[in-house]
Amino acid sequence: MGKLYVIYRDRGSTESCHDAEQLLHQSLQHITDSEFIHADISNYAEIFNRILQENDEGGLLIVDAGDRFAADYVEKLWHVLKNSNAAYISGRKSFIWMDKTVANKLLLSKKQLEMMPYTDILAGTLVNIKMAKGLALQGHLGGDMEADFLMRLAMKHTVEIQELLDYEYSQPDASQFQCYQGVYFKEWYFESMTDFLIPLLIEAEKINGKIPLFVQYYAMYVMKCRFDANSNNRNKHVIAEHEIPEYLNLLRRVLVYLDDAVIMNLHDCNYYSKNYQFNRMLLRIKYDVPQLDEQYLCERTTLCIIYKENVIYLLNKMRVNILFMNYVDGRLEIDASVPDHFSREKVAYYFRLNGVRYDVVFNEGYSLTKYFGVSAYKRFSFHASIPLKTTGEHQELQFFVQYENKEYVVLTEYKSHTSRLSNDPASSYWHFGNFIATRNPSTIMIDPYKWKAMVKLELKMWKEMLSKHTKHELMLLLVRVGYVLTRPYFKRKKIWMFYDKIYKGGDSSEYLYKYAMQKKDGIKKYYLLDKNAVDYKRMKREGYHPLKRSSIMHRLVFLNADMMIVSNSTVFAFNDFHMKNSKYVRGITDFHVVCVQHGLSVQKIALAQQRLRDNTRLYFCASKYEIENLSKPVYNYNGYDALKLTGVPRYDGLVDRNQKQILISPTWRMQSALLVSKNEGVARDYNPNFKETEYFKVYNSLINDKRLIQAAKEYGYKIAYVLHPIVSPQAEDFDKNEYVEIIPSTGEMSYEKLFCESSLMVTDYSGVQFDFAYLRKPLIYHHHRDLEAHYEEGTFHYDTMAFGEITHDNDELIDLLIDYMQHDCVMKEKYRKRADDFFAFNDNNNCQRIYDVMIDYQQRVIDKNR
């Protein structure tokens, strides 16, 4: 069989639960003819290719420092290779840093061998040298060279996966977009197609006459990785808006090689997308049409969609997503959505309650999916108002689609924190008014409330959670049991819970909390902070008692709160409840979310601030332009009396105390930070590639510019460069000088102090511009031509509404800064008038106005329904 060569790639990593190098040496002791080769990322390809060229048989394995595998992993792979005709052998792979349900994207059973690629990374893969002769790692392909090698090898020979051997790799591949750094480089989008994927497809067709299914599906995987990494608010802005048509044409060149059945995943490949809307989007790109000319066909049990003689979708796969349910004045109010698979012009959508039909009312609530910042497809969003009978009878609610006088039941799903019910656990229930709602796959069942019935349902829920046998479910079970036991006490309380970033206070919620604490209104008020936050200790010194994050009391207050007063969206996630665990409590939470804002809502931000994101009941604004923006149908606030023009709480602390200071405070960019590791209530991790970004280069150059520093020195100004909270972990990356203070927005840093003491602010698109303009101090907007805009304009247009001049490079900015310093940093009359027009108020009474509205809402809405 020849010799076994093992290349150990040392990437300079010291983080490993198991010492991979030690395990390799241990395993190789049991292999008679083997060689261990130490390499690094820069020279391993050369070593790999040399071994292939110099040997006619044997095996070649690559392992990365930090990878995890059993001590006998290599020995068992080697044994299998010697007794098989496989071109390569691999264990079952998964990525160390990710949930195992997300990883394992390329692993399939032997029965699917003819369809699937098994792996596109060399780590943990044992290559048969004899069968790999004539192939090599092509260095010019960069991050695609391993996939290119393995795919070409798989096209010529069989490969084998050992399902019982697990290999965990430590270096992310393209599917791990949270960690994979290639997502920030244009080559990953363009050259990957032109230099790697398209030539691979051409070669596959040339060798086989028809491109094998596994190669076609691999091409789909490659494209989907690019889309996933840039979906919705993940857009990396690597592909500029004007480049999107070019990129779509490039994807079309790939898609024309692929069968429609593959694009629509009619083979039911379990590692590729089963999202009909996404696959249909790719089919539209392939044929360069805005819509597919689909046909409908009625079957006995379902409705079919047919395109080019392929049945591409069945109605029985569709689900109606119940986003929110509420009981108001005897009616069940439902917000829901369905995918746009079937035209609203051709089919009817409605509910039936005990056989009586109730049509839904469609709206324009935000339900878009965007890729690369462009809308790709949407769901149909709608509202239904259904009167419930109070005669004590059992009632059943179902959702229907009707086509050509034939109606079909559509199954329900509950994919929102505010859905009230859940598909899992099956025993979920919702108690409201004098009713209890439960569910089965097709029906919401509504029965009259009985205490014994609810106890039985609760015990069934506990039993189901206990049966999961995981620490996660057991902890949640304790939370739920704690809620049940303490509910009689908390039910008598009126509770308002406040929070800002949790790892940092000092924003609008803290201001309103302190104001409300002065009121004797019978309401118990809590402000949430992490116990390790500097602001936690500060508030303790000030005589307050912050609610400690993740404490038992935090959980109980969260579950029993009447109002949740927040400055940031995604309430459940901020409180450590994600979809996988909120399903255990969503039937008992009933707080009313109040938005007091972190930044002002004048951009296109419906993804984060639309009503159903958190089921927001009150939304406090500082400007008529915010009301105008949020009143657009896509935000879905019309008819709910939620938008209030009062000012925002933190403006109450803004008083001019000019200390001759220039404040530089830009927002962040997607490329400048790692993605969320846990949730937005936890600070981001350090990004090792930050110094390679244009963002770093622009601002590092600015704060170290000799002309700027000399002017500040000459005119007696200090310079403070404040890092956005998401960029703050990168503080040490910036070059230091004695004239510029680099300030992370963590710890004891106070925005209010900086705003009040500064004379002029330089920003780009950050919401802090409004705080500074509220003080009627001058601003300069630095819209550097090398940096993409962070937000889409909504009702605030920088060319006509900005509170200061706009610059496009550092020299232009510095010239303007010097001019302002020469003239004592006075806001020009043109921009003062814009500020006067923008803000509804110019006082320090915002908290009072907001508190008055909240008290009225508590008494009129919440107390009424207790």
Task: Write the topology of this structure.
Blueprint lengths: L2 E7 L10 H9 L5 E6 L4 H11 L3 E7 L3 E2 L3 H10 L5 E8 L29 E4 H4 L12 H12 L3 E10 L21 H18 L4 H16 L15 H12 L4 H4 L12 H12 L7 E4 L4 E5 L2 E5 L4 E10 L2 E9 L8 E6 L2 E4 L1 E3 L4 E4 L2 E14 L7 E9 L2 E8 L16 E3 L2 E6 L2 E6 L2 H16 L4 H20 L3 E6 L8 H10 L5 E7 L4 H8 L5 E2 L3 H9 L2 E4 L4 H4 L4 H4 L9 E4 L10 H4 L1 H4 L1 E6 L2 H7 L12 E3 L15 E4 L29 H10 L2 H10 L2 E6 L16 E5 L6 H7 L2 E4 L4 H7 L4 E4 L15 H4 L2 E4 L2 H13 L6 H10 L7 H17 L4
Parallel strand pairs: 1-2, 1-3, 5-7, 11-19, 23-24, 23-26, 24-25, 26-27, 27-28, 28-29, 30-31, 30-33, 31-32, 33-34, 34-35
Antiparallel strand pairs: 3-6, 4-7, 5-6, 8-9, 9-10, 11-12, 12-17, 13-14, 13-18, 15-17, 16-17, 18-19, 18-22, 20-21, 21-22
Residues in β-strands, percent: 15-25%
Termini separation: 78 Å
Q: Which overall shape is indicated by the principal axes computed on the Cα atoms?
A: globular
Rg over CA atoms: 30 Å
Helix content: 25-40%
Extended strand count: 35
Runs in which pLDDT lies below 50 for 5 or more consecutive residues are 98-117
